[in-house]
Amino acid sequence: MNAHKTRLSLLASAFLLFAMVLSWSSGFIGYRYVADQGSVYLASLWRFILAAAVLLPFAWAGLRQVRRRDALHQGLLGLFAIAGYIGPIAGAIQLGMTPGTASLIANLLPLTIVVMAAAVPGQRTRGWQWLGLAVCLTGMLVASDASVEWAATDILVYSLPLLAVLSLAAATLYEKAAPGAPMPAPAALFIQVCAVIPVFAGLAFLEGGIRPIFSTGFAGGVVWLVMFSTLGGYGFYWLCLQRFSIQRISGALFLTPPVTMMWAWLQFGDPLTLKAMAGVGLILLGLPLLGIRQAYAIPAAEEVC
Questions:
Q1: Number of domains in the chain
Q2: Residue 141 belongs to domain spanning
Q3: pLDDT by residue (tens digit) across 195-215?
Protein backbone atom coordinates (compact mmCIF):
# COMPACT_ATOMS: atom_id res chain seq x y z
CA MET A 1 0.00 0.00 0.00
CA ASN A 2 2.81 2.39 0.87
CA ALA A 3 4.61 1.51 -2.38
CA HIS A 4 1.43 2.27 -4.31
CA LYS A 5 1.09 5.66 -2.59
CA THR A 6 4.74 6.40 -3.32
CA ARG A 7 4.26 5.67 -7.02
CA LEU A 8 1.18 7.90 -7.12
CA SER A 9 3.12 10.65 -5.35
CA LEU A 10 5.97 10.41 -7.86
CA LEU A 11 3.56 10.46 -10.80
CA ALA A 12 1.70 13.47 -9.40
CA SER A 13 4.99 15.30 -8.80
CA ALA A 14 6.22 14.54 -12.31
CA PHE A 15 2.91 15.74 -13.78
CA LEU A 16 3.04 19.06 -11.90
CA LEU A 17 6.63 19.75 -12.94
CA PHE A 18 5.99 18.79 -16.57
CA ALA A 19 2.85 20.95 -16.66
CA MET A 20 4.88 23.88 -15.32
CA VAL A 21 7.58 23.45 -17.99
CA LEU A 22 5.05 23.02 -20.81
CA SER A 23 3.06 26.07 -19.71
CA TRP A 24 6.24 28.14 -19.26
CA SER A 25 7.36 27.21 -22.78
CA SER A 26 3.99 28.20 -24.23
CA GLY A 27 4.82 31.89 -23.69
CA PHE A 28 7.51 31.85 -26.37
CA ILE A 29 5.08 30.20 -28.80
CA GLY A 30 2.31 32.67 -27.99
CA TYR A 31 4.51 35.73 -28.44
CA ARG A 32 5.64 34.35 -31.77
CA TYR A 33 2.01 34.48 -32.91
CA VAL A 34 1.62 38.14 -31.92
CA ALA A 35 5.13 39.35 -32.85
CA ASP A 36 4.12 40.24 -36.42
CA GLN A 37 0.85 41.84 -35.34
CA GLY A 38 2.14 44.69 -33.19
CA SER A 39 3.99 45.62 -30.02
CA VAL A 40 4.77 42.87 -27.53
CA TYR A 41 3.86 45.36 -24.80
CA LEU A 42 0.43 45.89 -26.36
CA ALA A 43 -0.15 42.14 -26.51
CA SER A 44 0.99 41.81 -22.90
CA LEU A 45 -1.40 44.55 -21.77
CA TRP A 46 -4.43 42.83 -23.30
CA ARG A 47 -3.15 39.46 -22.14
CA PHE A 48 -3.37 40.57 -18.52
CA ILE A 49 -6.63 42.52 -18.94
CA LEU A 50 -8.27 39.39 -20.36
CA ALA A 51 -6.66 37.20 -17.70
CA ALA A 52 -8.07 39.43 -14.94
CA ALA A 53 -11.55 39.20 -16.50
CA VAL A 54 -11.32 35.39 -16.69
CA LEU A 55 -10.03 35.07 -13.12
CA LEU A 56 -12.48 37.47 -11.44
CA PRO A 57 -15.51 35.09 -11.14
CA PHE A 58 -13.30 32.40 -9.61
CA ALA A 59 -11.41 34.83 -7.38
CA TRP A 60 -14.35 36.89 -6.09
CA ALA A 61 -15.16 34.79 -3.01
CA GLY A 62 -11.52 34.66 -1.94
CA LEU A 63 -10.96 38.37 -2.57
CA ARG A 64 -13.65 39.31 -0.06
CA GLN A 65 -11.52 37.85 2.74
CA VAL A 66 -8.12 39.20 1.68
CA ARG A 67 -6.47 41.68 4.02
CA ARG A 68 -4.66 44.74 2.70
CA ARG A 69 -1.27 43.39 3.80
CA ASP A 70 -1.81 40.15 1.89
CA ALA A 71 -2.99 42.05 -1.20
CA LEU A 72 0.20 44.13 -1.12
CA HIS A 73 2.25 40.95 -0.81
CA GLN A 74 0.66 39.44 -3.93
CA GLY A 75 0.87 42.72 -5.82
CA LEU A 76 4.59 42.91 -5.10
CA LEU A 77 5.02 39.36 -6.35
CA GLY A 78 3.21 40.28 -9.55
CA LEU A 79 5.40 43.31 -10.18
CA PHE A 80 8.64 41.35 -9.76
CA ALA A 81 7.64 37.94 -11.13
CA ILE A 82 5.49 39.06 -14.07
CA ALA A 83 6.20 42.67 -15.05
CA GLY A 84 9.84 42.50 -13.95
CA TYR A 85 10.41 39.34 -16.01
CA ILE A 86 8.37 39.88 -19.20
CA GLY A 87 8.98 43.63 -19.60
CA PRO A 88 12.80 43.63 -19.83
CA ILE A 89 12.94 40.60 -22.14
CA ALA A 90 10.43 42.13 -24.54
CA GLY A 91 12.30 45.42 -24.40
CA ALA A 92 15.62 43.77 -25.26
CA ILE A 93 14.16 42.06 -28.32
CA GLN A 94 12.59 45.30 -29.55
CA LEU A 95 15.93 47.10 -29.09
CA GLY A 96 17.75 44.70 -31.40
CA MET A 97 18.67 41.57 -29.43
CA THR A 98 17.80 38.34 -31.20
CA PRO A 99 15.15 36.18 -29.48
CA GLY A 100 17.61 33.27 -29.21
CA THR A 101 20.16 35.36 -27.33
CA ALA A 102 17.49 36.87 -25.05
CA SER A 103 16.17 33.38 -24.35
CA LEU A 104 19.63 32.06 -23.50
CA ILE A 105 20.30 34.83 -20.96
CA ALA A 106 16.78 34.54 -19.51
CA ASN A 107 17.24 30.80 -19.13
CA LEU A 108 20.00 31.41 -16.61
CA LEU A 109 17.05 31.75 -14.20
CA PRO A 110 17.42 28.25 -12.69
CA LEU A 111 21.13 28.82 -12.00
CA THR A 112 20.40 32.22 -10.43
CA ILE A 113 17.68 30.77 -8.18
CA VAL A 114 19.90 27.94 -6.97
CA VAL A 115 22.85 30.24 -6.23
CA MET A 116 20.63 32.72 -4.38
CA ALA A 117 18.87 29.92 -2.49
CA ALA A 118 21.58 30.04 0.20
CA ALA A 119 19.74 33.07 1.57
CA VAL A 120 16.61 30.98 2.27
CA PRO A 121 16.68 28.67 5.35
CA GLY A 122 16.54 25.01 4.36
CA GLN A 123 17.08 25.65 0.64
CA ARG A 124 20.89 25.60 0.40
CA THR A 125 22.29 23.60 -2.53
CA ARG A 126 24.57 20.78 -1.39
CA GLY A 127 26.71 17.85 -2.52
CA TRP A 128 25.49 16.00 -5.59
CA GLN A 129 23.03 18.79 -6.33
CA TRP A 130 25.92 20.98 -7.52
CA LEU A 131 26.95 18.27 -9.99
CA GLY A 132 23.35 18.01 -11.20
CA LEU A 133 23.24 21.77 -11.61
CA ALA A 134 26.44 21.76 -13.68
CA VAL A 135 25.18 18.95 -15.93
CA CYS A 136 21.79 20.64 -16.47
CA LEU A 137 23.42 24.00 -17.17
CA THR A 138 25.76 22.40 -19.72
CA GLY A 139 22.81 20.69 -21.40
CA MET A 140 20.83 23.94 -21.57
CA LEU A 141 23.79 25.80 -23.09
CA VAL A 142 24.37 23.03 -25.64
CA ALA A 143 20.68 22.92 -26.60
CA SER A 144 20.39 26.72 -26.88
CA ASP A 145 23.65 27.37 -28.73
CA ALA A 146 22.20 26.91 -32.23
CA SER A 147 19.68 29.75 -31.79
CA VAL A 148 22.08 32.34 -30.38
CA GLU A 149 23.39 35.28 -32.39
CA TRP A 150 25.61 37.79 -30.57
CA ALA A 151 24.66 40.91 -32.53
CA ALA A 152 26.50 44.21 -32.17
CA THR A 153 24.12 45.70 -29.62
CA ASP A 154 24.71 48.15 -26.79
CA ILE A 155 25.78 46.49 -23.55
CA LEU A 156 22.74 48.02 -21.81
CA VAL A 157 20.46 45.94 -24.00
CA TYR A 158 22.23 42.74 -22.94
CA SER A 159 21.64 43.69 -19.32
CA LEU A 160 17.84 43.70 -19.73
CA PRO A 161 17.32 39.89 -19.81
CA LEU A 162 19.70 39.63 -16.87
CA LEU A 163 17.53 42.14 -15.00
CA ALA A 164 14.50 39.97 -15.83
CA VAL A 165 16.23 36.90 -14.39
CA LEU A 166 17.15 38.70 -11.17
CA SER A 167 13.60 40.03 -10.81
CA LEU A 168 11.89 36.64 -11.10
CA ALA A 169 14.55 34.96 -8.95
CA ALA A 170 14.00 37.58 -6.23
CA ALA A 171 10.23 37.04 -6.36
CA THR A 172 10.72 33.26 -6.18
CA LEU A 173 12.97 33.41 -3.13
CA TYR A 174 10.78 36.02 -1.46
CA GLU A 175 7.72 33.78 -1.82
CA LYS A 176 9.70 30.76 -0.58
CA ALA A 177 11.10 32.58 2.46
CA ALA A 178 7.97 34.59 3.35
CA PRO A 179 4.93 33.00 1.65
CA GLY A 180 2.42 35.20 3.43
CA ALA A 181 -1.10 34.20 4.43
CA PRO A 182 -2.66 31.31 2.47
CA MET A 183 -5.29 32.34 -0.04
CA PRO A 184 -7.08 30.67 -2.96
CA ALA A 185 -4.89 30.45 -6.04
CA PRO A 186 -7.34 32.35 -8.33
CA ALA A 187 -7.44 35.27 -5.87
CA ALA A 188 -3.65 35.43 -5.57
CA LEU A 189 -3.10 35.31 -9.33
CA PHE A 190 -5.86 37.88 -9.92
CA ILE A 191 -4.12 40.38 -7.61
CA GLN A 192 -0.76 39.73 -9.29
CA VAL A 193 -2.23 40.22 -12.77
CA CYS A 194 -4.04 43.44 -11.79
CA ALA A 195 -0.79 44.83 -10.35
CA VAL A 196 1.01 44.60 -13.70
CA ILE A 197 -1.76 46.03 -15.93
CA PRO A 198 -0.76 49.68 -15.27
CA VAL A 199 2.88 48.83 -16.04
CA PHE A 200 2.14 47.39 -19.47
CA ALA A 201 -0.48 50.07 -20.16
CA GLY A 202 2.24 52.69 -19.70
CA LEU A 203 4.75 50.80 -21.87
CA ALA A 204 2.19 50.22 -24.63
CA PHE A 205 1.10 53.87 -24.54
CA LEU A 206 4.70 55.03 -24.94
CA GLU A 207 5.04 52.77 -27.98
CA GLY A 208 1.97 54.03 -29.75
CA GLY A 209 -1.26 53.39 -27.87
CA ILE A 210 -3.30 50.86 -25.92
CA ARG A 211 -6.01 50.14 -28.49
CA PRO A 212 -6.03 46.42 -29.39
CA ILE A 213 -5.37 45.24 -32.94
CA PHE A 214 -8.50 43.72 -34.47
CA SER A 215 -7.01 40.73 -36.26
CA THR A 216 -7.29 36.97 -35.88
CA GLY A 217 -3.56 36.59 -35.28
CA PHE A 218 -3.45 39.16 -32.47
CA ALA A 219 -6.62 37.87 -30.78
CA GLY A 220 -5.53 34.24 -31.05
CA GLY A 221 -2.10 35.02 -29.65
CA VAL A 222 -3.53 36.95 -26.69
CA VAL A 223 -6.00 34.15 -25.86
CA TRP A 224 -3.15 31.63 -26.08
CA LEU A 225 -1.02 33.71 -23.70
CA VAL A 226 -3.88 34.02 -21.22
CA MET A 227 -4.92 30.38 -21.09
CA PHE A 228 -1.55 28.64 -21.31
CA SER A 229 1.12 31.13 -20.26
CA THR A 230 -0.66 33.18 -17.58
CA LEU A 231 -3.20 30.85 -15.99
CA GLY A 232 -1.14 27.74 -16.70
CA GLY A 233 2.41 29.08 -16.52
CA TYR A 234 2.24 31.21 -13.39
CA GLY A 235 -0.46 29.03 -11.82
CA PHE A 236 1.67 25.88 -11.99
CA TYR A 237 4.82 27.83 -11.07
CA TRP A 238 3.41 29.07 -7.74
CA LEU A 239 1.83 25.65 -7.05
CA CYS A 240 5.16 23.89 -7.59
CA LEU A 241 6.90 26.48 -5.43
CA GLN A 242 4.63 25.48 -2.55
CA ARG A 243 5.34 21.77 -2.98
CA PHE A 244 8.95 21.36 -4.11
CA SER A 245 12.42 22.45 -3.15
CA ILE A 246 14.07 25.26 -5.10
CA GLN A 247 16.56 22.77 -6.58
CA ARG A 248 13.79 20.54 -7.96
CA ILE A 249 11.99 23.49 -9.56
CA SER A 250 15.20 24.89 -11.01
CA GLY A 251 16.08 21.53 -12.52
CA ALA A 252 12.71 21.34 -14.24
CA LEU A 253 13.09 24.89 -15.61
CA PHE A 254 16.26 23.81 -17.43
CA LEU A 255 13.93 21.82 -19.70
CA THR A 256 12.14 24.97 -20.88
CA PRO A 257 14.53 25.86 -23.80
CA PRO A 258 14.62 22.36 -25.36
CA VAL A 259 10.87 21.86 -24.86
CA THR A 260 10.28 25.20 -26.61
CA MET A 261 12.57 24.16 -29.47
CA MET A 262 10.75 20.85 -29.95
CA TRP A 263 7.40 22.63 -29.77
CA ALA A 264 8.50 25.13 -32.43
CA TRP A 265 9.71 22.21 -34.57
CA LEU A 266 6.30 20.51 -34.35
CA GLN A 267 4.20 23.66 -34.75
CA PHE A 268 6.24 25.89 -37.07
CA GLY A 269 8.65 23.47 -38.72
CA ASP A 270 11.72 25.06 -37.14
CA PRO A 271 14.89 22.95 -37.49
CA LEU A 272 15.69 20.58 -34.62
CA THR A 273 19.40 19.78 -34.48
CA LEU A 274 21.30 16.84 -33.02
CA LYS A 275 23.04 19.36 -30.73
CA ALA A 276 19.66 20.32 -29.27
CA MET A 277 18.78 16.67 -28.65
CA ALA A 278 22.17 16.09 -26.99
CA GLY A 279 21.46 19.04 -24.71
CA VAL A 280 18.12 17.54 -23.72
CA GLY A 281 19.87 14.28 -22.88
CA LEU A 282 22.32 16.07 -20.57
CA ILE A 283 19.50 17.90 -18.79
CA LEU A 284 17.62 14.65 -18.21
CA LEU A 285 20.84 13.13 -16.86
CA GLY A 286 21.32 15.96 -14.36
CA LEU A 287 17.73 16.21 -13.09
CA PRO A 288 17.86 13.20 -10.71
CA LEU A 289 21.00 14.64 -9.09
CA LEU A 290 19.21 17.91 -8.38
CA GLY A 291 16.48 15.95 -6.62
CA ILE A 292 18.88 14.35 -4.13
CA ARG A 293 18.41 15.55 -0.55
CA GLN A 294 21.45 15.39 1.66
CA ALA A 295 21.10 13.66 5.00
CA TYR A 296 22.70 16.62 6.79
CA ALA A 297 20.57 19.25 5.09
CA ILE A 298 17.89 21.20 6.88
CA PRO A 299 14.52 19.71 5.75
CA ALA A 300 13.19 21.70 2.83
CA ALA A 301 9.65 22.18 1.60
CA GLU A 302 9.22 19.04 -0.54
CA GLU A 303 6.35 17.39 -2.34
CA VAL A 304 3.27 16.54 -0.34
CA CYS A 305 1.24 15.06 -3.17
A1: 1
A2: 25-290
A3: 999 999 999 998 888 998 888
